[in-house]
Every structure is written in C-alpha cells, then in structure tokens.
Design goal:
Largest sheet: 4 strands, mixed
Organism: Pyrus ussuriensis x Pyrus communis
Radius of gyration: 21 Å
Pfam families: RVT_1
InterPro entries: DNA/RNA_pol_sf, Retrotransposon-Effector_Assoc, RT_dom
Helix content: 40-55%
Protein name: Reverse transcriptase domain-containing protein
Number of helices: 7
Structural class: alpha+beta
Strand content: 5-15%
Shape: globular
Distance between the termini: 51 Å
C-alpha cells in the first residue's frame, strides 16, 4: 500500500520523483560459450524491485477486466481464452477454402506480423484508449507514469553508462506490458469488426 500511495500522490505531470525508482540497467549476457558476433548476446533489463511490485499489483487488477474490454476475436493473454483456438479456426478456414466446390474469382488470406509491437506503442494513444474504455483519470495517470518514467543505462564492466529515456514503447517482460499492448492492438480488431458489420469487408 505504501508503494501505491507513493505513486498515486505524485503531482499529475511530474515523473522526476519516480525516475530513480524506475531506473533500468541493461546487461548483455552471452548466449554461447565462444562469442563471435554481437548477435550472440542477449540483452536483459535489471529493474528496481519496488517497481516490479507496483507493476505486478496493477497487472493483477487489470487482468480480470480484460474479458469485458477485449473483443472475442483476441485470445492471447485474456483469461478463459486460448490462443490455440485462433490457430484451430485458421486451419478450418483454409480447409474449407481448399475443399469447397464453388470458387470465387479472387481469394485473399492476410497474415499480419506485429514487428517490434512493444517498441511502437504511442503513450498518448494508449492514454486515449484507456480513457475511451472508461478507466478513471487516476488509473490512466498512474499507468502513464509507470511506462514514461523509465530510463535505461547500459552496464559496462559493472558501471552504468549515460541514461537515456524513451519517448514511446512498452518494456518487454514488464508485468503490465502484455495487457497494455492488448488494449492498443484491440483497436485494430474493433475497426475490422466495424468494417465487417457495415459490409465494407466480407469474410468466409
């Protein structure tokens, strides 16, 4: 409760007081014994333990609400849903297209790869999405503080280098990140559903 109170009582737009709490050191860990390339290193982030507690607390509160917020087409990271269901549906669709007797002049299957999805999340857009979903201003403010106050420093020979602060993106392996990414990416799913309902897109 003390950690939650600390974040909640901060001024609305001031993140300077929590930047040290959200400081992260990046360390390169070798993947193989005999290194030959920089690509054989795996970067890991060393986060402050106090921040991990807060992020876990917020993620625990957010998780039960996701089934009511995220569209039924999205199955990953949502309680009571399995991503394997979507894989099974995809197999059934392609099996149907392959075996059906009447064929259209054109058929299209679209596979989208969300390349560097975590890195490209715009904080302002995330804030708007949360507001539209009905989250209270205090919650939105707390989430934005958590993701915008982070600063990184490369740890070289045991000593941290210069700090840098991102202007967008979510930190991977942060307990909050998968759920926040869901809120953002579900906007695309909702837009597709909107187009289908208005007969602008037509599926099988």
């Amino acid at each position: 409760m003390q950690i939650q109170s600390f974040f909640t009582n901060l001024p609305c737009k001031d993140t300077s007081e929590i930047s040290s709490l959200n400081a992260t050191h990046i360390v390169l860990v070798p993947k193989v014994p005999n290194l030959e390339s920089i690509f054989q290193f795996r970067p890991i982030s060393l986060c402050n333990y106090s921040y991990k507690i807060l992020a876990k607390l917020l993620a625990t509160r957010l998780r039960p609400m996701l089934p009511n917020l995220i569209s039924p087409m999205q199955n990953a990271f949502v309680g009571g849903r399995q991503i394997h269901d979507n894989i099974g549906i995809a197999h059934e669709v392609f099996h149907f297209l392959k075996l059906r007797k009447t064929r259209c002049n054109y058929e299209l299957a679209l596979k989208l790869d969300m390349h560097k999805a975590y890195d490209r999340v715009q904080w302002d857009f995330l804030n708007v999405v949360m507001e539209k979903l009905g989250f209270c201003p205090r919650w939105c403010r707390l989430i934005i503080r958590c993701i915008s106050s982070v600063n990184f420093a490369m740890l070289l020979n045991g000593k941290p280098g210069n700090k840098s602060s991102p202007s967008q993106g979510l930190r991977q392996r942060d307990p909050l990140s998968p759920y926040l990414l869901l809120l953002v990416s579900d906007v695309f799913s909702q837009r597709l559903q909107w187009a289908v309902e208005r007969y602008q897109l037509e599926g099988v």
